[in-house]
Amino acid sequence: MIIVMKPNTSKNIIEDFIERLQNKGLIVHTDFGDKYCILGLIGDTTAIDPEQIQAHDAVEKVMVVQEPFKKANRLFHPEDSVIKIGNGSIGGGKLSVIAGPCSVESEDQIVSIAQDVKQAGASFLRGGAFKPRTSPYSFQGMELEGLELLKIAREKTGLPIVTELMGTKMLDKFVEDVDVIQIGARNMQNFELLKELGKIDKPILLKRGLSATIEELLMSAEYIMAGGNENVILCERGIRTYETYTRNTLDLSAIPAIKRQSHLPIIIDPSHAAGMWWMVEPLSKAAVAAGADGLIIEVHNDPANAKCDGQQSIKPKKFKSLMDSLKEIEKFKWSFDINEIGF
Ligand code: PEP
Ligand code: MN
User: Fold this and answer.
1) Ligand 1 atom with minimal separation from the 187 CA
2) Cα–Cα–Cα angle for 243, 326, 211, rounded to 5 degrees
3) Which of 176, 179, 241, 301 could be joined to 160 by an S-S link, Cβ 3.0–4.6 Å?
4) In the predicted model, what is the mean pLDDT of residues 141-170?
């Protein structure tokens, strides 16, 4: 961080100000010009708030040169993080696919889809038990019963389960029953919830908010990590733009952008991004080519009668052929190279 002091500020005030910064553990380099004094801060500047500094009477300008996130920052952790989930993992170069229906509807439905996606090569089963719906009159999920059915599907297939937690009330239950806790786009900045997630060690799949910047996504990851839980997987699921032909706009550039800034794995959700089943294939292929660590795809055996998001769900047969073609694309996918980027 660079701080430019107002012209002709007295030396006493500047020295006082420097002392306050030094008391926060920072090294302060000073450059006294004719009129201006410039301070260069070295050390962990995450502890100071640039807006608070800017509010000081003697401060002309504050320039932030380093990202505000630390634990999620690749600068302090150059190697890719690999998040362990049961016997599997996400991150570190290999492609991991999470697949399953938007929501759990019955034992037959979830078990049969779990068997199909496993056979096609998926490593994790998704399925919503508690659903964040725009309308309070829409299907809200099977809730605790849905969670039990997911556990049955896990037992029958061995696939670890990924499901969404909507608030702190069910946290203990999720810690006990679930392999990866999904935090949906609408809760990305639920800071109270994020703080609670920091106190556990369960892997967290953190989805990007509907209108969140990449930095805001990384700051939300930082909330969880700052509390002590470093098992965070990021997910780009489309952001809201002026475009109406798709449900959201898939921001593929989030993959290289996040890879450069952070060591955390980043996966892509083409289903919620596009909102249409026939776009899932091209977007999945593009995501793998662009270096995504994985995908989360909605698969349903009867999309026309699905209780949620049928229009964006692909059938098991389509999922199988997609998985086969992804193996080919994986061979020439982009991967982040610290030396090439000159990090
Ligand atoms: C989901 O994965 O079912 C979901 C609701 O996703 P998002 O939070 O990205 O909308
Ligand atoms: Mn859905």
Assistant:
1) 8
2) 25
3) 179
4) 98
pLDDT of residue 45: 86
Ligand 1, atom nearest to 296 Cα? 2
- Distances, alpha carbon 139 to alpha carbons 56, 193, 214, 313, in Å: 52, 23, 31, 17
For ligand 1, mutation pick of 133, 182, 205 (most atoms within 8 Å of CB): 182
* Minimal-distance CA residue to ligand 1 atom 1: 102
Q: Give the pLDDT confidence of 182-215 residue by residue, as tens digits.
A: 999 999 999 999 999 999 999 999 999 999 999 9
Q: In what helix (H) or strand (E) does residue 207 lie, and over which residues does it extend?
A: strand 204-207
Nearest bound ligand to CA 268?
1
Instruction: Give me ligand 1 centre to Cα 19, in Å.
Output: 48
> Best mutation site among 204, 269, 307 for ligand 1, i.e. most ligand atoms within 8 A of its Cβ?
269
Examine the domain organization and report whether 109 and 23 are in the same domain: no
Flag whether 74 is in a domain: no
CA dist 131 and 145 (Å) reads: 13
User: In angstroms, what is the span from residue 130 Cα to ligand 2's centroid?
Assistant: 11
Establish if 260 belongs to a structural domain. Answer: yes
- Same domain for 50 and 128? no
Q: How far is CA 194 from CA 20, 30, 74, 204, in A?
A: 31, 38, 21, 10
Nearest to 273 by CA among 234, 246, 295: 246
Residue 118 pLDDT class (50, 70, 90 cuts): very high
CATH number, domain at 59?
Answer: 3.30.70.1140
71 within a domain of the structure (yes/no): no
Across residues 152-178, what is the average pLDDT? 98
Spatial separation of the C-alpha atoms in residues 314 and 299, rounded to whole Å: 5
Expressed as residue numbers, the domain containing 40 is 2-63
Render pLDDT for 252-291 as a digit per residue (tens, 0 to 9): 999 999 999 999 999 999 999 999 999 999 999 999 999 9
90-101 residues labelled b (16+ CB within 10 A) or e (exposed): bbeeebbbbbbb
| Domain co-membership, 51 together with 115 | no
In this structure, the residues whose C-beta lies within 6 A of any atom of ligand 1 are: 102, 128, 132, 184-186, 207, 237, 269, 272
